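We modelled the chain as a single entity of 855 amino acids. Its sequence is:
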Amino acid sequence: MDNTENQNNGQLRVLDQPISTELKNSYLAYAMSVIVGRALPDARDGLKPVHRRILYSMMELGLWSNKPTKKSARIVGEVLGKYHPHGDTAVYDSMVRMAQDFSLRYPLVNGQGNFGSIDGDPPAAMRYTEARLDKLAEEMLVDIDKNTVDFGPNYDNTLQEPLVMPSKIPNLLVNGSSGIAVGMATNMPTHNISEVCDALTLLIDNPNAEIKDVLTHVKGPDFPTGATIINQYELPQIYATGRGSVYVRANYHIEEDKKGKKKIIVTDLPYKVNKSNLIEHIAKIVNDGVIKGITDLRDESDKDGIRVVIEISHNAEPEFVINNLFKHTELETTFGVNNLVLYKGKPKLMNIKELLEAYIEHRIDVTKRWLAFDIDKLEKKLHILEGLMVAISNLDETIEIVKSSKDPSTAKQRLMERFKLDELQAQAILDMKLQKLTGLEIDNLKKDYEETKKTIEEYKGILADMKKLMALIRKEVIEMKEKYGDARRTEIINAVTTKNFNMREFIENKTEVVIMTKQGYVKRMSIDEYRIQNRAGRGTKAAKMDDDAIKEFVVADTHDFLYLFTNKGRLFTMDCFDVPEASKNAKGRYLANFLKLEQDEKVTNILSIGEDIVKDADKYSVIEVTKKGKIKKMPFDYIKKVRANGLRVITLNEDDEVVAVKLLTDESKIMINSFAGKAVVFDHSKVRAMGRGAMGVKAMNLAGSEIVSVNVVKDNDAVLFVSKLGYGKKSLVSEFRETNRGTKGVTAMNIKTAGGVVKSLVVTGQNEIMVITDKGIAIRTKLEAVPLLSRNTKGVRLIRLDEKDYVHDVDVIEGAIDDEEIQEVKPEILDGNEEPEESDENSEESEDEQEESDE
């Protein structure tokens, strides 16, 4: 490196160096300044510089707990002018926090006026509020005038400020701390002072005690807002390492009014939770349908404490509602413990025992220093008292010397010569008042002399004996516990956190219908909403359409997982029971409220996956088929876990979208059907497994049509085909010859007057089907009413459609029927010229409902 120096009047020195080196050195200096001088608390007193300066300035202003308060602006000005040359807002905010009983377990400042609230209300301006030291803060300052701590220069080197407080209370543990430095941060919880003092006493008595012994006294964090810690068994590990997560849950109880209506009453909130924001969030997710069963929500909190009332409906289970609230709101939060502190000027991550030992070390040093200070002061006093005792012992002669001296200096000199005194002692004799010569005062003087002498011997004995020194510190610790100790506010239990909470345990697993519209509204209804009708009926209304139409329709169990595929090739998942439940006439909830969809992104396909399939994911593959004839296969493991912001599972052309998704096992074949009534069947091995980003390969030669369905089939399966105009039939897979993928396929349904195939489904083992139209009309009917016909037939009418209404989707409702019953619903295959059997009520069917041949 080429260094040059330029001189300007013999004073300016310029050093040339790379800017990278200068930036590195400058940023390192800044980082260390933030770490040491701003963000991290000292392990000894638990304070950051700004808090220490506030307390010291208040002491200098004489704002003791028994003195009148002063304007906060006066205090802030004192701190800024003398010790903390930063923004007044930073100083005031720090002082406000020290006065908030919901921020500090044991507040250090006694505030008068509006100092903010747990609802997040800001404090009043500093010109309106007043403050003084709290009684507890005075314990932080005890003996600071006895040379107990080191002082350093202030920012302009005109004053001295304490570098640490004597801290007679273990402030770091009882009040905690939080701060973000450069490349590191600290977050320490608050604790109960009685428990901390007990732990200190333990370590003083037995320095070799282990962390497990300490934890017999320190049960866990004790937050100022109470609540309940629910991961009790994880606390030992957190305290042993100084890092970990504490799960905190609100306290509540159930109340029931005279009418039997139940209410959830929240009485304590987790630490640092804003009550107003919490209530607003609960209201939002209730309106969005994320949580059901809540009919009213209000805040009845007052000066006596928190009371948030959550009213629930008659048919709702309180424990289910509250656990859902724990899962979705800040009624349960995580406090990330990170015990990073400044120890001997350096950042250090400390466990609970190290923190207690650091405090004890500090108190040993402080105690030694104030003892030495007091001994020196008492020895000076004793020295004076010794001179006075000489004068009293020779009272008449002393008086005579003073009376016969021409001036005070002569008297002083004569006393020094006569009684072998120094100048201080002789001056003290001359300054003594005549009243001290009374008998009582002389006795008091002798008593003071003996007591001072005894105190000096006692203090020296303590300094010389570590056991006595530790006993003194132990006595002070017990004194602090007796003066400030109180009952624990935060309960500690071991319970299942919402992280591990299985909502399925609280929800009945039943078959339901999930409906999604083209505009993106979704809802869930019980299958019992639809009574079974004969085929060719008109059905009942399933959803309020207005100018909307049905997009996707699936029958699923409440415990199933819904896999939602979008037009942009992404996948989202949600629990079936998280879909809002609604009536047949309701529109549902907007799906975008539940998923993080991009602009112009819409869900195009829903796949229902059972819990047992997810557990055995390695046994399955998933196949996706697009409208334009692409097919893709990939292991189900690839999509088993889906991120909250979605997972890309296929690359799509601009005018293409996923229309069908199915699970695949190694023994199965793939059947693909087009709207034109064609079907192609081929072995799954003809499609190789691909990654999530792949586009897929050609599935079928569509000749201008579109793919509508894909099924995983076996030779003995029966497949249900349903057309746009409401016709349906069953055909055996064995009727379809196996080909290669990419072919045109063979006729699966005669669509000349049926309107095109809408959906095909494997129906082996099911005994009911449900058909839904574009206008939201649905019919539920028995599968046995649908005949088993040859593949080149039209089938029979399943639903009578209104004008300009069409079948949009169909799904099967699983039934528990045995093999014999399955045989009963599989009559002989009819040839192309026979008419299927019909029940009496459907005898009026027209001739166009007879099977028809392609030929």
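As a brief sanity check on the tokenised model: Residues 229 and 248 are 5 Å apart (CA to CA). Confidence is low (pLDDT under 50) at residues 1-7, 816-855.
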